[in-house]
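step: validate -> pass
step: tokenize input -> pass
step: predict -> running
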Amino acid sequence: QVQLVESGGGLVQPGGSLRLSCLASGIAFSNYRMGWYRQAPGNQREAVAHIFTTGNTDYLDSVKGRFTISRDNAKAAVYLEMNNLKPEDTAVYYCNANNFPFGTTDSWGEGTQVTVSS
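step: predict -> pass
step: emit ->
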């Protein structure tokens, strides 16, 4: 049974920073592409960042240079360091595990709220 548990969300002022964490269990973590997605009210869920089994990463254009995704295979953890946060970053952030490129296993955490407001 796959379980992804996010933490680290909260309320932060514009320009501030947060670090999200996701702990995984029930999967061979090192074999999975890990990702962070977000969904703001009234919007579709969008991919924020991925980190592949190779360590390669990709990012949503609007977060490039501000967000950094990383993984620790020994801890089965993935992180999202978010700097210079903007009000438009406000959303529920979800952790995702996918056995890319096969795509036959796709699991989600329950999400953590990030609110950027003064």
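step: describe -> The mean pLDDT is 97.
step: cleanup -> pass
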